[in-house]
Amino acid sequence: MPLSWKMPEYKDDAGYLRTSDYNYELPKELIAQDPLEDRSSSRLMVIDRAGGTIEHRHFYDILDYIDAGDTLILNDTRVIPARLLGVREPSGGQAEILLLKRVDADRWECLVRPGKRLKEGASVVFGDGLLKARIESVLPDGNRIVSFAYEGIFEEVLDKLGEMPLPPYITHKLQDPGRYQTVYARYDGSAAAPTAGLHFTPQLLKDAESKGINIGYVTLHVGLGTFRPVQVEDVTKHKMHSEWYRVSESCADLINATRESGHRVICVGTTSCRTVESAADDNGRMKPVSGDTSIFIYPGYRFKVMDGLITNFHLPESTLLMLVSAFAGREKILSAYKEAVDLRYRFFSFGDAMLIL
User: Fold this and answer.
1) Within a domain: residue 292?
2) Does residue 317 sit within a domain?
3) Are residues 113 and 107 in contact, defined by beta-carbon separation less than 8 angstroms?
4) For residue 148, what are the domain limits?
5) pTM for the full model?
6) For position 15, what pLDDT does the model report?
7) Which alpha helices (DSSP H) does the chain contain, by range?
8) Which of 33, 102, 143, 152 is least crowded, fewest Cβ atoms below 10 Å from its Cβ?
């Protein structure tokens, strides 16, 4: 049964539960269009929640702030080449199908274009017939359930025909698709990268383990709902998208042991945060679990597991900005974002990073 949380309808101390309370001015040129040559050379803003201080470092300095015995939680999902370009049968008109979420072996929930032409029963062909799609049904939100026919292994066919679905604010062509994957990506299923993890290099992970920092892996397959704008002014009325996640027994045990020993659990990215908070009971005790979560974290939420967060800079009025504000405080975050703009930080998926402790 899908796991879903509806936040209680109370306000934080300042009462910031309007979507417009999470807006800020961002010059377009600060939206990073290309990844840096060295993943770990991005800038790093470090926010101390208790002291209210801000430091400016580089990501390769991040281990200075993480102690032996602390645990980093990373999302090991892998972005699939989920964008498929084909032709409609029998008209020959162009069509685009974007894979969002696997329903079963050969059926996916998808976004399609053009929506008016791709109604129930419509067919699309890709790669001269290497892959065929049929629209089975139209969901209430406009997404489609699509069945695919092919020979061989679906993932291999997808690798041949699909493209990496970059966020809409990135207009440059990505020269190396591997740069939109974390170095520890393992399990296929995401339509977008868990971008906070893009800053890590194999050497940085090795250095973390040498320092005595624990590393645990969870899986949450990121959907394009992460880019969907909040379209209601009352934050509590927003319907959060659902995503599949998994926490293994070994990772649950690691997090429990970390907390019992008095050390910190630091999540790499909002997806890791949403995963551990979904899997914990009211006392913060972790258990192995898999399923769908639509947890929506905004100011007023009481964190059960997470003690620190590594994250990128998020879109105005987004659920991700609300999550970060729930952890560090809205006014503190928006002040930090203004400072980042003034200092010409790079924003969004290929941008710079923030560490909140």
Assistant:
1) yes
2) yes
3) no
4) 83-161
5) 0.91
6) 67
7) 154-161, 202-210, 249-260, 270-279, 319-328, 330-342
8) 152
